[in-house]
Amino acid sequence: FLQNKCGNMLVMTLYYLCMNNKKFKESRLADCVVAFLDGIRSTNLKTIKSSYNALCVFYDGDDEVDFESISKHIKDEEIRDNALNFLLRLEKIPVIDDLIQSLLEEAKTNDKACLCLIKIAQSIDGAMAIIETDTKWISEPIPTIEKTMQLFLSIIKHSEIARYIMSSGKSNESGLFNNSSPLNFSSGSLSIGKNHNVLCQLHTYTHT
């Protein structure tokens, strides 16, 4: 039912009832959330958009989310924004390789995708997954050089990762800190690009 255009009508009706009928919400919200989660698997774009909008309001983190579908939706300009809005409303974005890869690609032009990556990087597993998935983003604005800096600092705030990058030789292998990269360590500071004078002291980088 959710695969055809009637699916959008169903999702919008359930959303309306949950918003405006207290008794219905109290008794059927859990079932509605399941329907909204099923809705993002639809092939109908209107149904997918309505489902994401409903999940942004009612999803509480208890039910399983199809992150494989979300990874694909991030690549679709018609529903990308809806998918990213939902991810940003999650308390924690899971560490999934395909999802991270999709976000890294989209972050080149989309601020919300970078914010999702910064959120993932709050956990050490997420931060490590980002640098293991791809390091080319270090030398690119995603979508601005300031956001690249913000993501990078979110990753190296984990002292284990900072030590790993600095001591394992990975910085040289990946080009993280070579002369062509816009991000370079210099005298305990991180400089941004040849044409930028911004210096950020690495107060979060601690040695233990």
Commentary on this structure:
The protein has 208 residues and is mostly helical. The protein contains eleven helices and three strands. The protein has a three-stranded antiparallel beta sheet, with helices on one face. Helix 6 packs antiparallel against helix 7. The protein starts with 5 loop residues before the first helix and ends in a 7-residue tail after the last strand.
* pLDDT < 50 stretches: 177-208
Structural Rg: 20 Å
Percent helix among the residues?
55-70%
Kindly state the number of beta strands: 3
Q: Approximately how much beta-strand content do the residues carry?
A: 5-15%
Strand order of the largest sheet: 1-2-3
Topology:
Layout: H1 6-20, H2 22-39, H3 45-58, H4 67-73, H5 80-89, H6 97-106, H7 111-120, H8 124-133, H9 145-156, H10 159-167, H11 170-174, E1 183-186, E2 189-192, E3 199-201
Helix pairs in contact: 1-2, 1-3, 2-3, 3-5, 4-6, 5-7, 6-7, 7-9
Core attributes:
208 residues; mainly alpha; three-stranded antiparallel β-sheet; 5% strand; elongated; disordered C terminus
Quick take:
The chain contains eleven helices and three strands; from the N terminus they run H-H-H-H-H-H-H-H-H-H-H-E-E-E.
